[in-house]
Amino acid sequence: MSRHFPAFAVAFAMLCSPVAAQEHLIFATASPSEGPISTVIFNDWAARINDDGAGIVEIDVRHGFTMANPANFYDRVKDGVVPITWGIMTTIGGRFPLTGMAELPFLSDDAETASVAFWRLYEEGHLDAEYHDIVPLFLTAFPQSGVHLSSPLASLDDLAGARVIAGSQTNSQVIQALGGLPQSINPADAYEAIQRGTADGRFVPWTAFPPFRMEEVTNYHIEAPIGTAIGMVFMNRDIWDDLPPEARDVIMRHSGEAQSRLLGQFFDAQNDGIRARVSNMDGHEIVAPDAQQSAQWETWLAPVTESWLERTEGGAALLERFTLLLEEAAAD
Predict the structure, then answer these.
(1) Predicted pLDDT at 20
(2) Could you tell me if residue 122 is left (phi over 0), alpha (psi between -120 and 50 degrees) or otherwise beta?
(3) Per DSSP, what are the bridge partners of residue 232?
(4) Alpha carbon of 63 to those of 20, 32, 47, 126: distances in Å?
(5) Does the residue 277 lie in any domain?
(6) Which of 51, 15, 285, 37 is nearest to 139 (CA)?
(7) 104 and 45 in a common domain
(8) CATH code at 180?
(9) Which residue among 81, 157, 219, 276 is least enclosed by CB atoms within 10 Å?
């Protein structure tokens, strides 16, 4: 009889012990439900986690702007109102100066390489000082932004005083250094500003065209690697720390570098597809500085990088490391 007692005791203990509750995490995407990033990236990511983590963790995707939007997404997670969200980190003025390095001109060419390099930079701990309230799950560096105007320039020697909507301090410095007049206008109001003629254009990547209908109000598109931004899916740190280790393991199996690479690939494909579509539209012209003009632009924009280095503690070492990581990611 004593030989069977341990097995009986174990079974009895299992029946009497409370079953661990499945973790339920709301992911407020701050993106339209029908948007490609929602349908292709966010839904798939959550589905993989929910399948792998059945009984352990569930990601409850909530699209739209009800629970979080592009203006408040960071505070909603920081304050614990929602556990997970998505947004463009460099639109949050002053909070992410190190992350703002991605906005510097002439750093990268494609989103995939830059996304992988930036994730590795984060994973090495170089950005910990500004991520103390959040835990990045995966991220992307967007494709390079271009200058999209409502009418052509006489030449690309400079922007000839064009009034260009720019999204950050570094973006504004880029536009000003190229001879334009930067304007600070909410992205949601950009269409109307250009349509009414209070702005001449906007500094954004091609991927911003569908949600903001930029092809309806701009027709002259200047391409050059003069800056990008970082987008990120991230989680409230306290909520993350309270998760059981097995829940965190499930989430990260489908996040991290692999998911960052996937998101970069997604945006590269989106960028190419949108560019091709706009190039085939009547009345649209896509141009780029020639070799001589590009050299001049690099000279004009060098002070933008110098300004970032001067105001960013540890910026020189960070930029040097990121440059090396870009080279390594490109060679993968």
Answers:
(1) 54
(2) alpha
(3) 87, 139
(4) 28, 6, 14, 31
(5) no
(6) 37
(7) yes
(8) 3.40.190.170
(9) 276
233 in the same domain as 89: yes
Q: Give the pLDDT of residue 315.
A: 96
Whole-number percent of the chain with pLDDT over 90: 85
pLDDT of res. 2: 36
Together in a domain, 95 and 39: yes
Q: Indicate the number of domains in the chain.
A: 2
Of the candidates 56, 60, 48, 114, the residue with the CA atom closest to the CA atom of residue 85: 60
What is the Cα–Cα distance from 94 to 76, expressed in whole angstroms? 17
Whether 43 and 159 share a structural domain: no
Distance (Å, rounded) from C-alpha 263 to C-alpha 116? Answer: 10
- The Cα–Cα gap between 301 and 177 comes to 6
Question: Quick one: 207 and 217 in the same domain?
Answer: yes
Nearest to 73 by CA among 27, 36, 119, 118: 27
| 119/238 same-domain check | yes
Sign of the torsion formed by the C-alpha atoms of 26, 31, 35 and 36: negative
**Pair 35, 89 in one domain:** yes
Residue 10 belongs to a domain? no
Residue 192 has a CB neighbour count (10 Å cut-off) of: 12
Per the CB < 8 A criterion, the answer to whether 322 and 117 are in contact is: yes
Alpha-carbon span 163 to 144, nearest angstrom: 20
Asked if 112 and 56 count as a contact pair (C-beta separation under 8 A), the reply is: no
Instruction: Give the separation between CA 111 and CA 30, rounded to whole angstroms.
Output: 21
12 within a domain of the structure (yes/no): no
What radius of gyration do the chain's Cα atoms show? Answer: 23
| Joined tokens for residue 66 | 């009800």
**Residues in the chain where the model's pLDDT stays below 50:** 1-19
Do residue 109 and residue 172 come from a single domain? no
Residues β-bridged to residue 87? 232
Rounded-to-integer distance, Cα 308 and Cα 103, Å? 10
Length of the chain: 332
3-state secondary structure (DSSP) of residue 255:
coil
